[in-house]
Amino acid sequence: MDFSLKSSAADFVLKPRLIGEVREGDSGKLSTAEGYLSQAFGRFRIRPDLTMTLGRELLTWGPANFRSPSSPYYYDSGKTRPLEDVPGVDIARIDWSAGRWTSTVGFVSGGRQNDEEWRQSSLLKLTYRGNDFLVGGIFSKPRNRRSFVGGHAQFSIGDAWLLYGELSSTTTSNITTTSSTLAAAARATVGTIGAAYTFEGGASLGAEYLHDGRGYSRAAQAAYFSAIEASLASSQIAVDLRRGGQSRLLGRDYLNILLQSNLQDPSTYWRVSPTVNLQDRSRQLLLYGEHSLHPRIALFGSLLWSSGGRSTEFGAVVRSTATLGLKIFLM
After folding, report:
1. What is the DSSP letter of 18?
2. Residue 83 near residue 323 (C-beta atoms within 8 A)
3. Does position 178 have pLDDT exceeding 60, yes or no?
4. Is the pLDDT of residue 141 over 60?
5. Phi-psi region for residue 30, left (φ > 0), alpha (ψ -120 to 50) or beta?
6. What is the Cα–Cα distance from 154 to 133, expressed in whole angstroms?
7. CA Rg, the chain, in Å?
8. 53 in Cβ contact with 117 (< 8 Å)
9. Is the pLDDT confidence value at 184 over 60?
10. Strand ranges (DSSP E) for the chain?
C-alpha cells in the first residue's frame, strides 16, 4: 500500500509492504511472511529553491535501463525486474536549485537492502539541465572506504532519438563470494552507453552496452565455476548474484536490448528484453505483458528464459521461469 499527504509546505510518503509466500516442492511446503517499509520519508520546502528530505527514499538517477553505473546505491535500479519492489535508502538530504543547476548534499545511513560498503556514506550530486540535454556528476564517500566518482548524461535529438551514457570509478566489488578466486577490490571503471528510438505510436526500441571492470575475467570466471563445482555448492552462484537485494553480474561486457510498448497506454503494456553476456556468450530473454481487465484488475505474465553452459552466468542458475498473476487495485 502507498500513502501520501501533501501540502504547500511538506510532503509525507509511507509505503509499507507485506509479503507472504508459500512454496511447495519435493522437500514439502515452506511458508514465509515478512513486513517492511519500502519507503517512508518527509520532504519539507524551506524555500522555493531549497528542500530537505528525511527518511527512507528511493534515490535513483540516470537514464540507463539494464544497470546504472553512476549510482553507488542502485547499480541495479530494478528497471529490468517488473515484478519486484525496490526499497529506498535511509537518507538525510538537502536539494538546492538555481536556474538550470540542481545540487544535492546528503548522508546515507543505510537501507533495508543497501550494500554494506555504502552504509554511512556522504553524497554530493550536481546536475545541469539544458534545452535538449542533461548532465550530472556524483561523488560519494563511505566511512573508512575509498570514494565513488560517477557521472551521467543524456541528449535528445528531435522527438525520436535519445543518446545517453553513465560512468563511474569505484573500488567496490560487484561480486561477493566465499570462493578464493576473487581478488581484493581495486579501483575499476564501470560504464554504459545507450540509444533509444521512439516510434510515432509511442513504442520504443533501445540498446545498451555495459562494461563492468569489477567483473571476472574469462580466466577468473573459469576458476570460479571450477571452485563451485568442486565444493558442490551450486547454490552459492545464486547467492553471489543476489547481493544487497540487487541483481549482480559475474562478467565484464554485456549487451541489452529493450523493445517496449507505449508507457502512456493505460490498458496494455509489454516488453521484450534480451541480454547477452559478451564474454561467455550466455543469453537471457525477458518477456513481460500486462493488460487491464477492469479499472481495478490487471492480468500480467512474465517469461524468463536463459541459455548457456553450466559454467556460464545465465546458464548456471535458472533455465526458465513463467509467472502468471493478477493485480488488484483496492483504492
Report:
1. E
2. yes
3. no
4. yes
5. beta
6. 6
7. 21
8. no
9. no
10. 3-6, 10-25, 28-47, 50-57, 89-98, 101-111, 121-129, 133-142, 148-157, 161-170, 188-198, 204-212, 242-243, 246-247, 253-260, 268-277, 283-294, 297-307, 320-328
